[in-house]
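Why run this: before we spend reagent on co-expression, it is cheaper to look at a predicted model of the complex and decide which construct boundaries make sense. The entries below are exactly what would go into the expression plan.
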Amino acid sequence: MVGQDEIVKRLQSYVKSRNLPHLLFSGPPGVGKTASAIAVAKELFGDTWTNNFTELNASDERGIDVVRNKIKNFARTSPLGEADFKIIFLDEADALTSDAQSALRRTMEKYTSNCRFILSCNYSSKIIDPIQSRCAVYRFGPISLEAIEQRIAHIAKIEGLEVNDEGMEAIKYVSMGDMRKAINALQAAGLLDKKVDMEAIYQITATARPEEIGSLIDLALDGDFIGARTKLDTLLINQGLSGEDIIIQIHRTMFDKSIPDILKVKLMDRIGEIDFRLTEGANERIQLEALLAYFVLAGKGNDS
Amino acid sequence: MTEKPTEWAEKYRPKNLTEIAGHRTIINDLVSWANKWETGVPKDKALIFYGKPGVGKTSAAYALAYQMEWDVIELNASDQRTAGIIQKVAGSASRMGTFDGTSGRRLIILDEADNLHGNYDRGGARAIISVVKGTSQPVILIANEYYQMDPALRLACKPVQFRTINSTTIVSALKAICKNEGIMVGVGVIETIADSANGDLRSAINDLQAMSIGKHELEVDDIITAPRDVKETVFKLMDHVFKAADMRSAQQAAWQVDESPDNLINWIDENLPIGYKDAHDMAAGYFQLARADLFLGRVRRRQNYGLWRYASLLMTGGVSAVRTHSHSGYNKYQAPQFWRKLGQTRAKRNIRDSLAGKIGGICHVSGAYARTDLIWFFKHLMKSKVHSVGLAAELKLNPDEIAFLMDTKPTTKKVGKIYDEAQQLIKDEIEHDIEVFGGFGKEKTEKMQVNSLLEFNGTKGTGGTEGTDEKDGTEGIDETDVSHTDVDNADSVATEKKNQSSLFDF
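The model came back. Tokens follow.
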């Protein structure tokens, strides 16, 4: 997996030579796909960038008629100002139906004198082969926690915010490798107080402290159901977290628990089941209690 | 900026047939096909080019036109392709001769012919068939998936398969580009790009350009575009799932693979019996896979993609963790077969479904009911010499459907005879209708167009509705084609009327 640094270097050299192939950016959310596309347009076109750059979110406009009308019309009209070509950015292109993707193929080729396409997607396997064949494919990996720390420190300095060590750890925890989440958390916490600490970050992002979730799981696995339920009530009532917030964090915390793999899989399966029931509208306290009871049973080794 | 920036895949698109990489036999056949057009109208009026992306189908069509000095009219999936539009653009081009009467053929290219949209391109396939049948100009259809095309359309054209380009050919094409662009390449660079292209020349050119913009020397380390084919990385993931010491490494390997969980499960499903030979492990593995599938189903139904995390974990870490034996040694993994098998029988299933639709139509039942409960009965009827022709006429069956009911091939004599007799019967009845109702108004034309699914030959007397157009249409076309042209014009009158608004969208 290539780090973003090298992709950025490549993009910079495209800007320098004022030429661009069609690009396909693939990778998880919040790793810089959209940001890269916009940055390329800004550096290429300068002040006129908004005239020569159009952004379509394919999950909103995903049908074949959008490709045949809106996109084709933008593609075949000449670029404005000094620009040599325009850029069409199709965000979440994997949401385009495959018919719509097919309709895009010849448009990408016929109007290359006027325009270039940048497509972004989460999984490149959702983009049909003929489109991939027409693009240079760049795979964006998840962002390292160090990179997030650097970036957050940089932004905090510019914005005059003070982030202490615990606060930084909290930002990294809630970001889950997603830069957008990290920056949003910093901004939201910074609005309340110039001093950003752990409490503010967890509160603003509806996140329990990892230790609290850890102790919730440990209490249950050790057989203390009442203790675990008291903890659960605190999270639900005092901290105002939703059942879904809690279940997602339980899921995350399980990865680091040192219990046998086979047991971990069973617990994870059960967590997923409860997650599903919560999204179906089941009562969060009863469902989470049922989960904790299952943990108690699993912890005793009586689970078959 | 001295030169306008270009896309190499376009800049180096071959102009002449000789510049096309590979496909020598095809090129020779094409040239002799084209030469036949110089002296008349050959038997195969339309060809279907089919094959994987980036192997040169569109380029070959354009190069042929360039070399023969033919004009080109192209319709592709970026254009709306309803019956009316196809008739207007391709249909008129296919019939009109040139005004000076000399050569000047016009090549009609229908690109992405396997991608007609059910709703937006309504009637498109049928219109293409009528263009192909009535054309006096060469037609080339281009498609990726031959068997996704309408069977009647396939019958009307001659297939030409474009195979993938071997990597030696790709290497020499890339070297030529580098030379022309003045780029120095290190050892193995071009070979690496060519190998990862899997026979897709265009993607190789794109990768080369992506790495060389703003550079004059290239090394292997400069290749940072990602491979388009994920097979290699998925095979590595299989080893992690079936052999790794702990589930964590299986999961981490899954994160590296650019496949969504709903695709990935097909790979694990295919290879689980290859990875786990022990019965207990296989059963336990499939239990995990089934749980993962349950979560995928919930995602599909509820569009709640958060649940993908459990599906992912169960199909990789879950399958890995339940193993009780160690399975070492080399495994020969394979790509998912199920979808390929489905694809191979797609043509047959399409015939069955269209047949069920027709039967359902006249029996007033759903297509599904016709498929499960009635087709066998019609198969039986079709065996009877007394009923077969009448049945084929009543249902307006095409040769594919007749062959399906008779469990034989559409090219057999028996099928051809029933089809021809049925067509004659349909024609007779129409003429009878005309006599009874005294005339053949426009309304009737429209109605008939709906009724007759594929074609109807001969019926005259529609000319009066369309004066000048008809003259253009028949000009310079030999006697035998006239009746065809008449019908086609009648068709286009009817359909153009219906699609008036969409004509202007084009």
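The longest strand of chain B covers residues 46-51. Chain B has four domains: 8-161, 167-222, 234-338, 346-438. Bring this page to Monday's planning discussion.
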